[in-house]
Amino acid sequence: MSRSNSVPATPFEATITDLSHDGRGVARVDGKALFVSGALLGEQVMVRLRKRHRHFDEAEVVEVITPSPHRVEPRCRHFAECSGCSLQHLDAEAQIAAKQRVLAENFERIGKVAPQQWLPPLTGEPWAYRRKGRLSVRHVLKKGRVLVGFREEANPRFVADIQQCEVLHPAIGPKVGLLAELINGLDAVDAIAQIEFAGGDDTMALVFRHLQPLGEGDLAALTAFGQQHGLAIYLQPGNNSSVHPLWPAQPRLAFRIASDDARFADVELEFEPLDFVQVNANMNQRMVAHAMALLDPQPTDRVLDLFCGLGNFTLPIARRVAEVVGVEGEHGLVQRAAQNAARNGIDNATFHVANLFEDQRASDWARTPWDKVLLDPPRAGADQLLAYLPHRKTRRVVYVSCHPASLARDAGILVNQHGFTLASAGVMDMFPHTAHVESIALFER
C-alpha cells in the first residue's frame, strides 16, 4: 500500500544502477529503491515521482542528463504512453544482453547453478512479429469516442490512445485506429469489452467479446470490416466455449513448422482462435529447430513432451523417434493435438489430458522410463512435476521456459535432486522490445 498520497511534483536527479524485471530503470534514493519508467542502466536522469510505497517508489523520466550509449529513438510514437513495450528505447543488442543477465542472475541467486555452456541468443525480426494477443476496448465518454489498444504505461486502469502498433502482425498492427472507429460506429458501442487476435500463416482472426447481443446492423458492420480487410471475424458472447465465427462461415487457422532436416516432413497445426500458440511465428520456427538440436532425438528414442499444447514440439519430435507422448491440462488442446497428428499422418504420437500441477505419478505415462523429456511449462514452472519426474533412466531433458525465476528454481531441483548437469542454456527473444525473458536449457545425466 502507498505510504502517502502526497507525491512531490519537483523533479530530482537520480543515477540508474540496474534494470528491473519489467524494463524500468532502478535507482537508490535515500536508501530506498526507485523504479523509473523510461530510464536505462548507467543513465543520469531527472525524474518526477509518481507513487510512494512502503518499500519502493515509482517515478518517470522528465530529462535524460547523461544518456546510455545504447539509447535509441523508439520507432512507435505511442511508446511513452502504451505499456505494450518497455524497451523500444534500448538497442537490440543491449536488450538481449539485459535478458541474458537476468537469466544468469536467476540461475545464480535462485537455482545456485550455472550452465557449463551459454548458448548463443536466438533472435529474429524485432518488428511486426506478434500474431497473438488481446486488445482492450474502452468507450470514453469524455473523449466522445472509443479507444482500442493496450493499457497505459502510467495508469493501467486506462487504455492507451493509439492508432497503430509497430510490433503487431501487419494484418492488425496498422489497423488499431480503424478498429476503434468500427466499434465507435456500432449501436452496441458500450458492449464490446475486448478484441482477441490470433494469426495463422494465411488468416488473421479477430474475436469480439460482447456483453450483450448484437443487432443486425452491428453484425453487418463487423462482417463488412472483415471482408474489407481480409480478417476472419469471431464473436464471443460468453465464456471461451461460446466463441463462434461470424465471417466466413468456416475460417481455418493453421501454421506450418518447417523441418530443418530434409529427411523429415514439415508439420502443420490447426488451432482455434483462443488456443495457446507462441506469439512470434518466426521465432517459434527457430525455437522448435533449436529444441530438436538440443534434444537430439534418435530413431529408437521414446520421448515425453509435457505441457504439449497443440503438439508444437510433439509432432516434430514424432517425425524423428520411435514414440512420443504429449501431456497437457486443457482438454481442447489435447483433442486438437491428436487431430493434428492424424492430419499429418503421424501414428506414433499419443496424447493425454492431465493437470500437471497435481500429483500424476500413478499415471502410466509418469511411470514409464522415457529416454528423453521435453517440457514447456507456464510461468509457474514444473517443480511439482519434478517431485517424481524424470525417471532415473531418462538421459536428457530440454526445458523451454517463459519465466527465468521458475526455470532457475527447477534447474536447481534437476541438478541437486535428480543428478543432472545443466549442460547449456540461453535466451530466446520471443518478445522483442519487452522485458519478457524466454529461454531454453539442456540437462544431461
Automatic annotation (TrEMBL):
All copies of domain TRAM, residue ranges: 5-63
Statement: the UniProt record of this protein carries the keyword Isomerase: no
Enzyme class: transferase
Keywords: 4Fe-4S, Iron, Iron-sulfur, Metal-binding, Methyltransferase, rRNA processing, S-adenosyl-L-methionine, Transferase
Presence of keyword Iron: yes
Matches recorded under Pfam families: TRAM (PF01938), tRNA_U5-meth_tr (PF05958)
Reactions the enzyme catalyzes: uridine(1939) in 23S rRNA + S-adenosyl-L-methionine = 5-methyluridine(1939) in 23S rRNA + S-adenosyl-L-homocysteine + H(+)
Recorded superkingdom: Bacteria
GO biological process terms held by the UniProt record: methylation
Chain sites annotated for binding S-adenosyl-L-methionine: Q278, F307, N312, E328, N355, D376
CDD domains recorded: AdoMet_MTases
Catalytic residues of the enzyme: C402
An MF annotation (GO) of this entry: methyltransferase activity
Documented EC number(s): 2.1.1.190
Sequence positions that bind [4Fe-4S] cluster: C76, C82, C85, C165
Coiled coil: none
Family: Belongs to the class I-like SAM-binding methyltransferase superfamily. RNA M5U methyltransferase family. RlmD subfamily.
Task of the protein: Catalyzes the formation of 5-methyl-uridine at position 1939 (m5U1939) in 23S rRNA.
Protein name as annotated: 23S rRNA (uracil(1939)-C(5))-methyltransferase RlmD
